[in-house]
Design brief:
The protein is about 40% helix and about 15% strand. By secondary structure, the protein is of the alpha/beta class. The protein is globular and about 50 Å long. GO terms for molecular function: hydrolase activity, acting on carbon-nitrogen (but not peptide) bonds.
């Protein structure tokens, strides 16, 4: 019995993939993405909640996330910069108005910006088609206006795209999405707007599922990162792979988690010759040039 499908890509086992290499013959591409997010107060959805079941205004929940914009985001920037890790920001563009100093700090440090909606209070799967189109365009145009170039990549707020998100992204000029955590290599997707690349994105090596949902401690999350890195370095000896690590300014930006994250960050950035420290955009550009989509 054949089940309903998304019809974006077919099944392809990891053992049957095109041959390619990362720059310099390196084997494991590693990126760290920092989510900078802003949430509505007393309006829209509550988003991720540390006090679920409460109605607006959930002041405690709003303030927990706001810690990331006032404090945690700066702490993470300092640590990543000190370790020489290329910077990737998953950006709610409401941050341009709400906390412009924070966005400026990441810009001045050379960060790559990925579109992440206007606010994490509104998810694409909750919008009608026109509202989603307008949101994606607004995000694209805001980043282009502030950063000088439109974003190449997209990550849906709440990791909750609609069934049409990829079609809209391709039509609006995006090159890749981070919405599909199904592989350790990039995957070409079919859309009504032409090919769109899915760059690997972590569900497990991500502080929202690991910490906020599954209650991992700061030490547990650092172990998850370190063990995944070490294991994937071994796996990547036979074929190039991607390890994404996603952290939120209000979660890993907390002091006790930051302390453990610093330790594993030192391990990641210790000059391993087989590791490419990079960004999703650099991964997408290299893969597109090396393994272009098949012409239909």
């Amino acid at each position: 019995m054949k089940l309903p499908s998304h019809n974006r890509f077919g099944y392809q086992p990891i053992t049957q993939r095109p041959s390619f290499n990362w720059p310099g013959g390196r084997q494991l591409a590693v990126y760290v993405a920092v989510a900078l997010e802003h949430f509505s107060y007393d309006a829209d959805g509550l988003g991720l909640s540390y006090s679920p079941g409460l109605r607006h205004p959930n002041t405690y929940n709003w303030a927990w996330r706001e810690y990331g914009n006032r404090v945690g985001g700066y702490r993470l920037l300092d640590e990543l910069s000190a370790h020489g890790m290329p910077l990737t920001v998953l950006l709610n563009t409401a941050c341009y108005d709400h906390c412009p100093q924070l966005v400026t700090a990441y810009r001045q440090a050379g960060a790559e910006f990925v579109g992440h909606g206007i606010t994490n209070s509104v998810h694409p799967n909750e919008q009608d088609e026109q509202a989603e189109i307008e949101t994606i365009r607004a995000v694209r145009d805001a980043i282009a206006a502030h950063e000088g170039n439109p974003p190449a990549g997209w990550m849906s707020p709440g990791a909750h795209p609609s069934r049409r998100t990829e079609d809209i992204l391709a039509r609006e000029g995006f090159g890749y999405t981070l919405d599909w955590p199904m592989d350790d290599q990039p995957t070409w997707m079919d859309t009504l707007g032409g090919p769109l690349l899915s760059v690997p994105y972590p569900h497990e090596v991500n502080d929202v599922p690991a910490v906020a949902l599954h209650h991992a401690s700061g030490a547990d999350f650092a172990t998850i990162i370190g063990d995944t890195f070490d294991e994937m370095r071994e796996q990547a000896r036979s074929q190039p792979l991607v390890l994404g690590i996603v952290i939120h300014s209000f979660i890993v930006g907390q002091p006790f988690r930051l302390r453990r994250f610093r330790e594993v960050l030192t391990h990641l950035t210790a000059g391993h010759p087989d590791v490419w420290l990079t960004t999703p955009g650099q991964i997408a550009r290299h893969f597109t040039n090396t393994v272009p989509p098949e012409r239909s």
